[in-house]
Amino acid sequence: MAIILTLPDEYGYVLLATVSTFFANSFHSINTGIQRKAAGIKYPAAYAPQEVAEKDPKAFAFNCAQRAHANFTENLTPAIGSMLIAGLKYPVLAGALGGLWSLTRVLYTIGYTKKGPQGRTKFGIASSLSLLALKLMAAYTAVQIAFH
């Protein structure tokens, strides 16, 4: 059985939110590169060794930036998928939550890089809640479409 899919007029908001993740990822890459250079950590090392990071604030900041970037990429696929699916029925809300997710991921990284793990909490909670809402909306949308 074929399904004809008509996108809502407001689906552009979802696409804008999705595109915002590309720029958030670029921010993460640039931030990590700057921190790597400042710490003098050579490729291919993914992180500064723990004993170095404990003594060198620049190496510690690099590790925090690198971990924030890894955490972003770990959550990127579910975020984009959730935005695109939820946006089929709730484009304005999905676009807003997706944009919020991207913004909070950038702010999470800034806090994490500057203050260590304690600097990530506030925006980590905000990004987790926005992503949870997107996932729930995506699941609900999928059920609605599957059993229409």
From TrEMBL:
GO MF term list: glutathione peroxidase activity; glutathione transferase activity
**Membrane topology, record value:** Multi-pass membrane protein
In Pfam terms, one family for this protein is MAPEG
Q: Where is the signal peptide?
A: none
Locate the transmembrane regions by residue number.
123-147
Q: Name one GO cellular component term.
A: endoplasmic reticulum
Q: Which UniProt keywords apply?
A: Membrane, Transmembrane, Transmembrane helix
Question: In which compartments does the protein localize?
Answer: Membrane
Q: Which Gene3D superfamilies match?
A: Membrane associated eicosanoid/glutathione metabolism-like domain
Can you name this protein? Answer: Membrane-associated proteins in eicosanoid and glutathione metabolism
> Lineage of the source organism?
Eukaryota, Fungi, Dikarya, Ascomycota, Pezizomycotina
